[in-house]
Design a protein that fits this description.
This protein has 465 residues and is an alpha/beta fold. It contains 19 helices and 11 strands. Helix 12 packs across helix 19 and helix 18 runs antiparallel to helix 19. The N terminus is likely disordered.
């Protein structure tokens, strides 16, 4: 899923909602806005790689307007440091930074891109309802020439770049032109309380069977085996995605999550995954009242020592480490055998993109290159973020941060990331979230749950042909 950076992102994180006036204005622009029934706009042109000027000092006096959502803690700190360093290196380029919360950025960006003077550089949500719609409307610049000129394809593995790729008509997600470059990485894994495992006489599980056995041991000992707060519906998507990737081949998950033809939710493997969640509920492996508990109270409770495990994303690292210190551990979801090829739900933070109407695309590309460079990745690590590139090369303290960095470096290097499931269709976040609540409340059987998903997926995949 488009994860809260994922402290505040997409369907996974609450945030402020903006202004009725903007919503009204957006409605007035429906005929030409992304997602309307208007035909796709022409693909913006881009230079050849050989024509790209990569020395930003030669571009003359430029003011770049940059919209980002890096407003929290280490996110804000890394942007402040990198922007200052960029302006120091290139005094001819001034940055006009506009920083908004994720929800505010999402709301206002759609309107701004429809205007005559949009920002030069924007963070655009990867999903179909945002980046896909902007691509369809011809509002973002393809970056392939810049990627070749700057060597971005060598900097980032394809398992990361695919999260910013769309076909020129915006229909296919995960392949085609490159439209953005992210700074941070995300992976959903298993946080654990090392002190509680020690009390139970257990080691961090190395296989999926060991993980389930540990859940049973924790329950028998009177502990909360696993924290979950699913009031907002999206947290269970991470849990289901983790279980699903133990049963369903990664290629099938990618087909489903990218909304392509050629796969089905109605399979024995998906049925087993759904049934496993129901079994966990029946065995009492989740905290009481989890379907009515908020996301924040759940991870905060885990941070206070309530729970042995929590399936969640790496964006919670800093907050959980503040409370648990070195008692916090993190592992990738283990497979059937120890040491098997890793598979985990994950992706990237919001990619930085260049708007099609920017009068300064070369300066914008130089800026994106600067804030995603090897030096920038070090700055991200130093400010408590998870850099999406050169992750394994960063020097961080032993303990939880090193666990997270090692896990992300491993899964990306081995092409083991599978997409957030809510990428599948423009409406799938709502469909899947509601269906999971019903499944976990035992209001729907695994078969009924999967039939709901299949209907949304098939409708979109067939029409998107």
């Amino acid at each position: 899923m488009i994860a809260p950076t994922r402290e505040g992102r997409s369907t996974r994180s609450p945030g402020s909602r903006t202004l009725a006036a903007l919503a009204a204005a957006a409605l007035a622009l429906t005929a030409c806005a992304p997602g309307s029934s208007a035909p796709p706009a022409a693909t913006p042109s881009q230079p050849s790689a050989s024509a790209v000027r990569t020395d930003a000092a030669t571009l003359g006096d430029v003011t770049l307007t940059v919209w980002d959502q890096e407003v929290r803690g280490g996110q804000a700190a890394q942007m402040k440091q990198l922007n200052a360093a960029f302006e120091a290196k290139y005094p001819n380029i001034k940055l006009n930074r506009v920083s908004r919360s994720f929800d505010d950025l999402n709301t206002t960006l759609r309107l701004a891109l429809s205007g005559n003077e949009p920002p030069d550089v924007v963070e655009a949500n990867n999903g179909r309802s945002s980046m896909g719609a902007f691509v369809k409307a011809g509002q973002l610049l393809p970056l392939d020439a810049y990627a070749e000129a700057y060597g971005w394809k060598e900097r980032y593995p394809e398992s990361v770049l695919r999260y910013s790729r769309y076909s020129a008509d915006g229909k296919l997600f995960g392949e085609g032109n490159l439209y953005g470059l992210p700074q941070v990485g995300e992976v959903v894994g298993i946080f654990y309380n090392a002190a509680k495992l020690t009390e139970l006489g257990l080691e961090p599980p190395k296989t999926w069977a060991e993980f389930q056995a540990a859940l049973a041991e924790a329950k028998a000992a009177g502990e909360v085996p696993m924290q979950l707060g699913n009031l907002d519906k999206w947290p269970a998507v991470h849990v289901f995605g983790t279980v699903q990737s133990r049963e369903v081949p990664a290629d099938q998950i990618r087909t489903l999550a990218f909304g392509r033809k050629g796969a089905s939710w109605n399979t024995p493997e998906n049925t087993r995954a759904a049934q496993q969640l129901v079994d966990w509920v029946g065995k009492g492996y989740f905290n009481k009242g989890f379907n009515g508990q908020g996301y924040d109270p759940a991870w905060q409770a885990f941070g206070k020592g309530e729970g042995v495990f929590m399936i969640a994303g790496t964006w919670l690292l800093a907050d959980l480490q503040k409370n648990l210190g070195d008692d916090l551990g993190f592992i990738l979801p283990p497979g059937a055998t120890a040491g098997g090829a890793p598979v985990a739900t994950g992706g990237t933070g919001l990619p930085f993109a260049i708007t099609a109407k920017s009068p300064h695309p070369e300066a914008a590309a130089a800026y994106i290159d600067f804030i995603t460079s090897a030096d920038a990745m070090k700055t991200l690590a130093d400010t408590g973020n998870l850099p999406v590139a050169d992750t394994a090369a960063q020097k961080v303290s032993e303990g939880p941060q090193q666990d997270v960095f090692t896990a992300f470096g491993t899964v990306t290097a081995e092409n083991g990331l599978v997409p957030y499931l809510d990428y599948a269709t423009p409406t799938f976040a709502d469909t899947l979230g509601a269906a999971l609540q019903d499944l976990l409340a035992e209001k729907a059987s695994p078969q009924e749950f999967l039939a709901t998903l299949e209907k949304d997926y098939k409708t979109f995949a067939e029409s998107n042909g």
